[in-house]
Structures are given as C-alpha cells and as structure tokens.
Amino acid sequence: MQLQGKRIVGSRVRQTKGKTRVAGLMSGTSADGIDVAIVDITRQKVKLAAFDTFPYPPALRRQILRLCRPESARLDDICHYNFVLGEVFAEAVIKLCSRSSIALSSIDLIGSHGQTIYHNPRGKRYGPRTVRSTLQTGEPSVIAHRTGITTVADFRPRDMAAGGQGAPLVPYADYILLGHKRLTRAVQNIGGIANVTFLPGGCNQSNIIAFDTGPGNMVIDGIIRLVTAGKQRFDRGGKMAARGDVDRRLLSKLLRHPFLRRRPPKSTGREEFGAAFAEQLYRRTASEGITDADVAATVTAFTAKSIARAYRQFLPAMPDEVILCGGGAHNRTLVEMLQNELPEVKMLSTDNFGISVDAKEAVSFAILAWATIKGMTNNVPGATGADQPVILGKIIPV
C-alpha cells in the first residue's frame, strides 16, 4: 500500500478535517475482558470519545487461560479461539458504538492488540541465531470483515523481527500523550504485568526508556482467587491486603526473582508470573501457616517494591512525577505502598490528564494504529532493544 494524499489506496481510512477516529482494543495478561476506546486523533490532540470494558464470559475466560499454559493448550483450540476472539473483539466495538450513540460508520480505523497467549522475548536458538517469538489471538481479518473497518493488529512481531522483545509497546503513546517540555515523568502501568515508560523532560522518541518492572496485578489476582476458592478474582481496593501484615521473610525471597535483576530492555508475562507461580507460592504459604490476609499484603508489597527497586536500579534519574494507569491504580493499598517506597515523587494518574486509568492501554493501541496507517515508526528501540525504529502492525484493509 502507498499513502496517497489523506487516503491509503485500497482501504477505507480517511480523515475529516484532519481528524481520524480510531477504536483501540486491548485485552491484557489478566484476560478479564476487552477494553474498547474510541478516540479522535489529530496531530495536535487525542480526545477520548467513548470507553467501556466487555468482560469475557466465564467459560471463554477459562478457555483463554488454558491456551496460555503449554501443558493445557491444544493446537485445534488455539486455531478455533483465534477466530472466536476475532468475533468477540468485533462485537465489542459494535456494542460500544451502540451504547455511546456513535455511528459505526464514523470510525475510520481499528487498532487491536489482541489477546497474547504466549510471549517468548528471550527466544530460543535456531541454527546460528536466537529467534524470539510471540503469539496474539483475536483474528484481525474477522474484526475488519465484521465491522467493515480497516484494522491494524499484531503489533509485536515487527519489533521482534528487528531484534527487539516486542514489548513494551505503549511507550510511543506515552510520549505522545504525556511527554513534557520540563518535567521528567514515569508512566507506570499496573496491569497483569507492570511496566514503566521513562520520559525525560523535553525528550524525543530516541531517548525514551521503558521496560517491564515485574508483576503488576497478576500475582495478587492469582493469590486472591486461590485463597477465596475462586469467589473473588481480585483484591478490590486492596481491602484484603490492608487487613494483613507483610511477611518480610517471604517478601525478601520473592524479591530475589531473577527477572527483577535482569537489566533492560526486558519484558515478561504469564510465563514467569502466571498461575503456576501463584499456585506454587500459595502451597508454600499454606504449609507455613501464613494467613490469607498476610499473603495478600505480601504479594501486594512485592509489586510495589519491585516497581520502586526498578526505578532505583535502572532509571537514570528519579522522575518528578509518576503517572499511574491500569487496574492496579484502583488498588489503594498498592498505591499507598508504592508512594511509601517513592516518598520523593509526586504520584498522579492518567485520570488527572483526562484519560481513565482503565482506558489508557486501549487508547494507546488506537494511537499505535494511527501512526502505522500514517507510515510513522512507532516502536521505541530504547524500550524493546530493537536494532532500529520500525512501523508496527499488520494492516487488514476493507
């Protein structure tokens, strides 16, 4: 495809008075559901028009989580649910338009991260080279066909082809949304995995630093599901953790996890901090008689301390402001623990900048898709370790 004026030849992407309306789709490592954000983008401004989250039906979520575990994933199921998720992602866009009284035909472009079921950023040897790999489901051809909207998806592989880890992906959007001429900011996403984007004052795309700091909500959520026998999926507001005391001996052991010592660029996921990690930890704490509330407090402190230690070990300077986003920003106990670990830093959230902490990731994929369709490089080599800036994503035109 070639850019021709304001239109990509062979697609329905257009601009109205310099504005592109994009739907961003995101489903994270927690596999709770699909976040959909509809945003209007110009070269000067990103405005959120609508947002909602569409939870996966429980049976579908259980199946997705089975696909994420090599011991339970089946090839035929991976093939089938790739297309099922394409249908579900497309339906989420259509539903948000209906709920928000936004005409589906007014959306020019969709950017879909998909649902990651496996991510291997360190790679395996094949012949003389190390080959990194990743797999996202949620077939974009289905999304494009059901909605009639040009879709950009599968953003990670191009960065990996350029020698990167394919993650984190959102630093480009963080730079667009939250870069400041004077203040140094750290945008801290706390989803299933926690990741930071370091934006020095007056920075450009070439001097951004970003990496996964370690677990975000993933270990906390896993422990809560286990201690409540599945009655709760997460620690709402950090209430259970607030009732407990941190087990310092256990915390010290958790903080010796090898990922935390690894130097950036680095990324991680369910492969290191998923269900198997939580189950092994729960068995140990049960055998040692550690109370449920104390386990919740300890794994919450694990997330807070791993974030703060990453800042002190791997950032060139402490930021003036930390801007939180992701589901962990709702966990008051976690936020308080993080503030106690970083007392010198002003703690904010993306809500302070007009973007819901829940919508931030979906907005980011709208921005990434917009940049892709414009032919603009949108990875950050300083974050992923790629050899060069590249244009991310695969375009499904309609």
Structure description:
This protein is of the alpha/beta class and 398 residues long. The chain folds into two domains: 3-167 and 359-396, ATPase, nucleotide binding domain (Nucleotidyltransferase, domain 5); 172-353, 2-Layer Sandwich (Nucleotidyltransferase, domain 5). The protein is built from 15 helices and 14 strands. It has helices spanning 58-67, 75-100, 140-147, 156-161, 171-178, 218-227, 239-243, 248-254, 258-261, 270-273, 275-287, 292-314, 332-341, 360-373, 381-384; strands at 3-4, 7-8, 20-27, 33-41, 46-55, 109-126, 129-137, 151-153, 185-190, 193-199, 209-215, 321-325, 346-349, 394-396. Strands 3, 4, 5, 6, 7, 8 and 14 form a seven-stranded mixed sheet that branches. The chain has a five-stranded mixed sheet with strand order 11-10-9-12-13, sandwiched between helices. The radius of gyration is 20 Å and the shape is globular. It starts with a strand and ends with a strand. Residues 1-12 have low confidence and may be disordered.
N-to-C order of helices and strands = EEEEEHHEEHEHHEEEHHHHHHHEHEHHE
* Gyration radius from CA atoms, angstroms: 20 Å
Q: What is the CATH architecture assignment of the largest domain?
A: 2-Layer Sandwich
CATH topology of the largest domain: Nucleotidyltransferase, domain 5
Count of distinct strands = 14
Question: Which CATH top level class of the largest domain fits?
Answer: Alpha Beta
Which strand-content bin applies to the residues? 15-25%
List segments where confidence is low: pLDDT < 50 over at least 5 consecutive residues: 1-12
CATH homology superfamily of the largest domain: ATPase, nucleotide binding domain
The computed structural class is alpha/beta
- Oligomer, anyone? single chain
Helix fraction, binned, reads: 25-40%
Q: Alpha-carbon distance between the termini?
A: 13 Å
* Total count of domains: 2
Shape: globular
